Amino acid sequence: MSNVVLEKVSRKFGEFAAVNEIDLRVAEGEFVTLLGPSGCGKTTTLRMVAGLEQNTSGRISLGNEVVSDAASGVFVPSERRRLGMVFQSYAIWPHMTVFENVAYPLRVRRRPLAEIRDLVSRSLRLVEMEGFSERPAPALSGGQQQRVAIARALVFEPKVLLLDEPLSNLDAKLRLQMGDEFRAIQRRLGMTTLYVTHDQSEAMALSDRVVVMDWGRIQQVGAPEDIYRYPANRTVAGFFGNPNLLDASVEACARLEGGRVQLDVVGHGWQGRCEAATEVQPGQTVTVMVRPEDIRIAPAGTDKDGLRWSGRIAHTIFRGPTRSIVVEIEDGRLNVDAPAFGGYSVGDNVTVVVPRHAAWAVG
Ligand code: ATP
């Protein structure tokens, strides 16, 4: 397995930069996901690593080898990069058996038959499909086909595995199950993996690190927990889940232990305390992100060290494990995830609170 390094990599189509000066290092054995809205440049980035698309500037390396360098003109073709690929469009071939599907990359490489048999059965064993080798591909479930596609990508021991929305053809339940299974296989084999999805929950569940992209640029790179909790800007904050984003003005700023800062902020009809990554000058405006699951409907007088609003319950939706509550406040609405059977009714006047550490300000 190898690491993957992108240095100032861009891909222009005419004047339009689909990918704009991306720097990224994927360590050996790491699972990194490119996440972002449709058209943000995820697939183009993956295709450049795959060698299916040529970068118009910058450099891409796999392990110790520079595989594409726009300045010097080096370009190693895709078939010589030793990459395993599972693309959405890379469905397994219906006219072949499972064995023939998985053997295909080895046949193309003209490996001897005995070796092909060995490698195919090992690869099928890895995805727990060893009993299926003579099955015609159409006689498999969606999840089994997915496993065969992964086995085919693994069969020639690739340096790096590239996956573009590999679970998108599956229904929601199978998607979860296959995601978990795939992550387990990836961990066991220690495969360096670059994965593309626009599904934030898939990205969070699978990845060691997530790269959030927008308009061809990287917005933030980090562990899923950090990106969810401490987004770098409003775009990233809004992209994960369904957070409340409130405009506020900063009154005071103080350093906290561990590098973060504490802000005293004032909004329309509310005020309180939140945290931020770096110092903000008094008078500046910020966006305060508060997640619905961190808000509590509370009796008066609690949680002074945080934010609080007075409001009225406008709407509730029963969701099974929780109840979504919309609270009307002076300058808008707050989405709150409350216990399903908390006894709240439309029209109730309530105070809602969030502790300081769960209210995050971005510029
Ligand atoms: P999706 O999730 O919809 O697949 P994406 O994030 O993978 O989106 P890309 O497929 O990388 O996005 O496309 C990024 C941008 O580059 C888009 O605006 C797209 O229209 C543009 N683009 C991609 N390929 C070409 C091409 N061959 N010629 C011109 N523009 C292109």
User: Largest sheet, described in full?
Assistant: 6 strands, mixed
CATH architecture of the largest domain: 3-Layer(aba) Sandwich
| Alpha-beta classification | alpha+beta
What is the number of domains? 2
Low-pLDDT sequence parts: none
Helix content: 10-25%
Distance between the termini: 39 Å
Rounded to an integer in angstroms, the radius of gyration calculated over CA atoms is 25 Å
Q: How much beta, percentage-wise?
A: 35-45%
What does this molecule look like?
The chain has 363 residues and is an alpha+beta fold. It folds into 2 domains: 4-234, Rossmann fold, CATH 3.40.50; 242-362, OB fold (Dihydrolipoamide Acetyltransferase, E2P) (Beta Barrel). Helices cover 23% and strands 38% of the residues. The protein has 8 helices and 21 strands. The strands form 3 sheets. It has a 6-stranded mixed β-sheet, with helices on both faces. Strands 2-1-4-5-6 form a 5-stranded antiparallel β-sheet, with helices on one face. Strands 12-13-14-21-15 form a 5-stranded mixed barrel. Helix 4 packs parallel to helix 5 (172-189). The longest helix has 18 residues, at 172-189. The radius of gyration is 25 Å and the shape is globular. The model has no long low-confidence stretch (mean pLDDT 91). Adenosine-5'-triphosphate (ATP) is lined by residues 13, 18, 36, 38-44, 198.
